[in-house]
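Re: [help] complex structure
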Amino acid sequence: MREPVYASCISINNRVAMKKTLPFLAALAILLAGCASKQEMKTRLILQDDYAKDHLEVNIEEFTDARGMLGVQATIRNTDDKRAEFQYRFRWFTEDGQFIDSPTATWVPVYLEPQDTHIAQSTQVTKYTTRPRLSIRRLD
Amino acid sequence: MTKRLLPLLILGALSALMSACGTSAHRVDATGNEGITTVRNLDFKDYQIAAEDLINKLLSSNTLPVANQNPAVVMVSRIKNSTAAHLDTQLLTQKITIALDKSGQARTTTRVYQDGQFDPGTERARALSEEEGFAKDTLQKEATLQAPRYSLAGEITELHRQEGRNRESYYQIYMTLTDVRTGVAVWQDAKEIVKQEKRPLISL
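Output below.
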């Protein structure tokens, strides 16, 4: 059987050198692959009216799950002494600002007792959407 | 004469008044909260809220493969309607399969759907080998269909309570994803929706 071309080009000395450098190259490749797959996420919070600004406290945490999928968790607290009625919506954009529509991009109503917290979560629509936006406004 | 006209005038004024109370037909934002809310049934917003919640739970559950790496094939099975109302459960399942498709984690088979098939086009196209006039290299080969690995199913249940003029409805939308190789549910979750109303003393 004919040897593959790339194998015939490697001399014995080269093979020894290759053995030494292979672990290094493999480590480098893993490192580079790790860097390439790590997606940088930037969540934008949009409080659309004074009601949301005055009565709600929002704390955003970004996470990456075990498979590398991005997600956002928003802890929304009603700082008022009255029941809060608001709605929120997560929308996911690409790095270039293109909106990728999804059934999850819908306004979700929330009814929150005074000082209580609501946890809203959203997972990225596709692996290309790394710019989530969380909008919050009063529920009319 | 005036006596004869008076009832007509009153009737005319009443009907004008009643028609003025209504609003003209208009469109609303389908993703917003301006739609009609009823207590005794699930409204389109309820399906949206349930889908939004269940999709996020399923996608973050680590059940399905990594996005775009050999996506799993999912079939839509039965969503059991255990309510007294007629429900279009596709409003829920289609939202979920759209999101799964976009995520790259799964593809939906339209050949295997509930007790039959969603798209009869596959069967029709595959039967073309028995018809004349089609180029052989464009005809489908035998045994190329992909069997589903997962089955999406669920159940919608309800509870209604009434106390005086207050009415309350509770809905639970429960969904499972079953690995058809083992018959074991690899993911299950539920979304609860509660709606209340206080009926007016006098209603039309």
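Chain A has a mean pLDDT of 83.
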